[in-house]
Amino acid sequence: MDFVILSLVMMVIGIYGLLTNRQLIKVFISVELIAIAATLNFVMLASAMGVGLGQAFLILAFSTDTAISGVILALLVVVSKKYGTSDIGKILQTIKDKDESEVEA
Amino acid sequence: MIFEILAVGLIISAVLALFLEDVIYSVAALAGTFFFVALIFVEYNAIFAAIFTVAAGVGTLAVLFLSGEMLGDKPAKKTSPKRIGTLIGTGVVLSLPAIFFSVSGSGGVDSNLIFGDALWNVRGLDVVLQGLVILTIALGIAVVLYEKKRKGGQ
After folding, report:
1. Which residue pairs from B77-83 have beta carbons closer than 8 angstroms and sit at least 24 positions apart in sequence?
2. pTM for the model
3. Chain A residue with minimal CA distance to B36?
């Protein structure tokens, strides 16, 4: 049962990074770390049961992970092109300034 | 002993991937994370999982290198060696629970025939779930296109 603790630690690191990082690419890396924690759990269960079922389900986990990565990257490109930065704080400030200028007008 | 070394390496590379200032260095650290995960799978005789991890990791890292170089903001200052040392220390501390609270005793996966059997036996469930993923993506694309059309009409 080695992987339970290890994947738990990995997941905690990923969630902490997801909540604290301001860069969109770092947010993406955090999601990847959470996905790695999930795959570690799959293999742990397969190892504990002594069957290859976990490895079979790993294919599904990877396909889901790839779909998630594609969506996040698409959003990242769109947001970066629209606001000229990948910093969440700067993007929020830009939206706030835009709203204030619209209210004043 | 090998698992403990790999666990420490995995946690350190994950911490470095999240908290290094430069995006390119972060992606390089993430490459280390994928590498250590694959090695852990190999140690537990899950060869197919290791191969899938490496294959998926290489694709993700290639895209991340490109997008990190093109879209990532350059940091104002370089990461100091002191900060890198602190991050490595944090990684070592975080990996201690995985080393000391682990209860070893699993025999590892018998990878060859059992994996193929399992893949064949659960193919129905696998196909249904993959179909669900594709359906969700198609629904997302349809919503985006509908919104685009609606905005274009206004």
Report:
1. B77/B21, B78/B21, B78/B22, B79/B20, B79/B21, B79/B22, B79/B25
2. 0.77
3. A36
